[in-house]
Inverse folding.
């Protein structure tokens, strides 16, 4: 029996399935060519006929997906993803630059927040509209775009600070850097899922944990830099310059290391004539098709509600814990409140890797039942008993924040379960508009209600009670949306043109 | 079907373990710094 094997990589582009395929006869001395052989640490051993040119198989440019060379370990892909996510996670440490900018350039608090706000808006827009490009051009292209945009955003901001042109800081960090945030955020998701089909939750959890970890690194690092260089405009300019150059070097590891796996397909089917397993086997739905399904919008609601609930705590964590225990025998000091915020950041990060990995064991629907159902119970506990017990308040807040992080990290794997790996990165990009919506909704609810309660003469925990009940309601809506998630209707599925695939196999 | 292995087949793929260690150290070192700073700040909740 002929055991001719073919390698296939590529994917669906706008007008159909495009592959690059190479075949060879199996060699009895080459274990990797044996039917059914899978390296425990690699996905897809490369197969290349000696007569065929090497360049056809190992693409070197950034415009084509970088296919893994022989023996490439999949454990090289998470650090590649982390180098990008740890960098762009700096966005959440923007607040370090706010006071120096306000004093150096005479800005208000609202004005100094503009670069961050524009950056987050651009993150959502570029992830939503650039997702298809990321899928088409591959992770190396996406990471290169993220590196260039994020670093040059800092360089433009440096120029803006040096010349005291604030608009240039807003444009550089917010607009240009924001594109880097969005493209960088989604750049490794699809690739990680393809390398870790057995543990997609863990794989995307590692990367998305990096986004949370980025702020932990940047916050003290940026503060120390400003202390050394000075908080005047030239000191800020130098700090921006060092940030831009350092992040360019740090992110380059991701660009150099990231690889897409090859997919082995036995020609003429697998054992017994059954179709060979493939990363593209199972349900596959295009990004355009996905947004037309109720499943996409259910997940949109789930993510939006979960993030809104988390931001409800995160937004006002420091004043909240002080208000809750202001009248108690042990009021919370300013430094203790800062410690509480730091602990919440740790819970957020731990939730990203911990809960997302757990979802590989108990399933995506069940883990969101926990996030949304138990999250609502945690909010109820804070609302009813939070002001009577500090440990209970802290514990509930930590659990809510871990669910917030877990919700972010698990959603790519949930998308993969429902829509397949075909354009999961692009679908994820479109779903991140839920994050942008929640980013406005969460703080708006908590701040608006706290202000109204304060005007009504209320103090302490009474400022937040109504917000918490609203959060419970939102989580209940998310819980119902999760219950409504069903497998995608087959009419939305994309099928590979088998004739062309067969032709590739025989070539 | 070939009956023997070429020298490149018998050599096998290169050992990637040093590269894996370097890559994880590259991202792990700054992450450890961030976590250390975080722990320092978080302890203020119990001491401050």
């Amino acid at each position: 029996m002929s055991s001719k094997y073919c390698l296939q990589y590529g994917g669906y582009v706008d007008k159909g399935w495009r592959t690059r395929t190479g075949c060879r006869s199996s060699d009895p001395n080459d274990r990797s060519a044996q039917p059914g052989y899978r390296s425990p640490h690699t996905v897809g051993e490369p197969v290349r006929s000696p007569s065929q040119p090497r360049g056809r198989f190992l693409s070197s440019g950034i415009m084509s997906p970088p296919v893994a060379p022989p023996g490439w370990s999949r454990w090289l892909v998470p650090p590649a993803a982390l180098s990008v996510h740890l960098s762009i996670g700096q966005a959440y440490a923007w607040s370090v630059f706010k006071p120096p900018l306000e004093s150096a350039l005479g800005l208000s608090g609202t004005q100094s927040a503009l670069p961050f706000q524009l950056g987050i808006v651009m993150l959502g827009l570029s992830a939503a509209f650039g997702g298809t490009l990321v899928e088409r051009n591959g992770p190396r292209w996406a990471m290169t775009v993220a590196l260039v945009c994020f670093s040059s955003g800092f360089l433009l901001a440096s120029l803006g600070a040096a010349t005291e042109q604030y608009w240039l800081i807003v444009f550089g960090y917010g607009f240009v850097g924001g594109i880097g945030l969005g493209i960088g955020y989604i750049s490794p998701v699809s690739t990680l899922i393809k390398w870790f089909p057995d543990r997609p939750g863990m794989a995307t959890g590692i990367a998305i944990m990096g986004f949370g970890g980025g702020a932990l690194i940047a916050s003290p690092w940026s503060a120390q830099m400003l202390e050394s260089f000075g908080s005047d405009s030239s000191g800020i300019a130098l700090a921006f310059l060092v940030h831009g150059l350092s992040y360019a070097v740090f992110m380059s590891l991701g660009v150099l290391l990231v690889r897409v796996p090859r997919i082995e397909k036995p020609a003429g089917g697998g054992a017994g004539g059954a179709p060979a397993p493939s990363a593209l086997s199972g349900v596959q739905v295009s990004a355009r098709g996905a947004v037309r399904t109720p499943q996409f919008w259910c997940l949109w609601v789930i993510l939006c509600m979960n993030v809104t609930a988390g931001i409800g705590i995160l937004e006002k964590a420091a004043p909240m814990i002080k208000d809750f225990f202001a009248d108690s025998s042990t009021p919370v000091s300013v430094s203790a409140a800062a410690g509480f915020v730091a602990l919440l950041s740790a819970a957020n990060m731990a939730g990203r890797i911990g809960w997302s990995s757990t979802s590989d064991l108990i399933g995506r629907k069940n883990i969101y039942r926990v996030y949304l159902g138990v999250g609502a119970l945690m909010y109820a506990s804070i609302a009813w008993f939070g002001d009577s017990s500090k440990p209970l308040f802290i514990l509930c807040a930590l659990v809510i924040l871990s669910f917030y992080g877990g919700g972010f990290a698990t959603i790519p794997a949930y998308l993969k379960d429902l829509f397949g790996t075909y354009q999961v990165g692009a679908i994820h990009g479109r779903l991140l508009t839920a994050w942008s919506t929640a980013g406005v909704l969460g703080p708006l609810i908590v701040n608006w209600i706290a202000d109204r309660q304060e005007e009504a003469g209320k103090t302490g925990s009474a400022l937040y009670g109504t917000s918490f009940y609203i959060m419970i309601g939102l989580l209940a809506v998310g819980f119902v949306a999760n219950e409504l998630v069903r497998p995608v209707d087959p009419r939305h599925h994309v099928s590979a043109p088998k004739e062309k695939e067969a032709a590739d196999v025989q070539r | 079907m070939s009956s023997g292995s070429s020298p490149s087949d018998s050599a096998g793929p290169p050992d990637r373990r040093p590269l894996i260690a370097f890559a994880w150290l590259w991202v792990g070192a700054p992450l450890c710094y961030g976590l250390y700073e975080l722990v320092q700040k978080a302890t203020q909740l119990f001491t401050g």
About this structure: The longest helix of chain B spans residues 17-42. Confidence is low (pLDDT under 50) at residues 1-8 of chain B. Chain B has three helices and no strands. Helices of chain B lie at 7-11, 17-42, 44-47.
